[in-house]
Structures are given as structure tokens and as C-alpha cells.
Amino acid sequence: MAASSAMEQTLAILKPDSVRRNLIGKILAQIEESGLQIRALKRLTLTRKQAEAFYEVHKERPFFGSLCDYMTSGPVVVMALEGERAIERWRELMGATDPAKAAEGTIRRKFGQNIEQNAVHGSDAKETAAREVAFFFSALELAG
Ligand code: UDP
Ligand code: MG
């Protein structure tokens, strides 16, 4: 079946501000309504080392230290989402990095507080999605 070639997995994170404000259910509902499947899901608190490793690509950016402080400030919910063109679809559903610039109806527009505390994370390409899903989930956890 040709359609299966577009099947993708992507990593989603409900960031500490979302968990702290009891937004898990509202955001999961929006994900499920979009037709994306939640393949694996867990709640955890990132260590400093884990946050720095996860965001390594940004380590030279001025916001890196503050971003790692924020991402370790409380529990997060991490998910592997699955579906056709899941990477792009989840980015669309999230909206732009800066909630003030995100389109109406997107998760960041509705729930993001500022360019740092912007409610959710999503992988940005096939290679980063594979790395990020494997960062949090084992093959066994993805097999369910
Ligand atoms: N971020 C920030 N200040 C900026 C840009 C980004 O604090 O000027 C934070 C924000 O939480 C963002 C994360 O760093 O989600 C990663 O940045 P990226 O450019 O990869 O944005 P994203 O892919 O999350 O939209
Ligand atoms: Mg990014």
C-alpha cells in the first residue's frame, strides 16, 4: 500500500507550564481530534543533563540556559505520535514558536505564555524525530 510510506512518528512534549496548569487533558483531546495516534506516553521530570542533551542543538543560543531551567522546573509529559505526515501535522497543530505569532486555534496560541513557555514541543524533521523518539522511548515501549 503506497500510503504507508508517509507513516511517521514524531516526539511531542507537554512542557512544564502545561502540566503545572492542568492542561494535559485539553491538549491530548486536541491531538486525538486531529486524528494523530498516541503511540506511547509517559510523565517524567527531566534532569539538567537530560534537558541539555535533548536541546544540544541550541547550546550556543542565548536562551539555552533559561530553556534548560524551564524544562527542568517540573514534570513533563512525553509522547510518540504516529500518523501520515505526523511530523508536519503536529507542527501545524502546535503553531509558531512564539505564541503571539501562532495561528488562531493552535495549541501554542491557546495555551502558550511566551516564546519560552510555549506549552509544547514537536520534532522538526524526520531525522530529529527519530532521534527524539529514541531519546525517550525504548523499542518495547513503542511496540504496544
Ligand atoms: N525558545 C526560547 N527563546 C527563543 C526561541 C526558542 O526560549 O527565542 C525556546 C522555546 O521554548 C522553543 C525552544 O526554545 O520551543 C526550542 O526552540 P526552537 O527554535 O527549536 O523552536 P520550536 O521548534 O520549539 O518551535
Ligand atoms: Mg525546534
How many E-type strands?
4
Tell me the overall shape.
globular
Structurally, the number of domains stands at 1
Biggest beta sheet summary: 4 strands, antiparallel
Which CATH-level-2 architecture?
Answer: 2-Layer Sandwich
Report the portion of residues in β strands: 15-25%
CATH superfamily: Nucleoside diphosphate kinase-like domain
Which residue ranges are poorly predicted, with pLDDT under 50 across at least 5 consecutive positions? Answer: none
- Strand order across the largest sheet: 2-3-1-4
Radius of gyration: 14 Å
The top level CATH class name: Alpha Beta
Estimate the mean pLDDT confidence.
96
Along the chain, the helix and strand elements come as EHHEHHEHHEHH
Q: Report the helical percentage.
A: 40-55%
For this structure, the CATH topology is: Alpha-Beta Plaits
Could you describe the 3D structure shown?
It is a single chain. This protein is α+β, with helices and mostly antiparallel strands and 144 residues long. It has one domain (7-139): Nucleoside diphosphate kinase-like domain (Alpha-Beta Plaits), CATH 3.30.70. It has helices at residues 16-20, 24-33, 48-54, 64-71, 86-94, 107-111, 126-136, 139-142; strands at 7-14, 37-44, 76-84, 120-122. A four-stranded antiparallel beta sheet has the order 2-3-1-4. The longest helix has 11 residues, at 126-136. The chain is globular and about 40 Å long. The mean pLDDT is 96. The structure holds uridine-5'-diphosphate and magnesium ion. Uridine-5'-diphosphate (UDP) is lined by residues 58, 63, 67, 97, 115-116, 118, 121, 124.
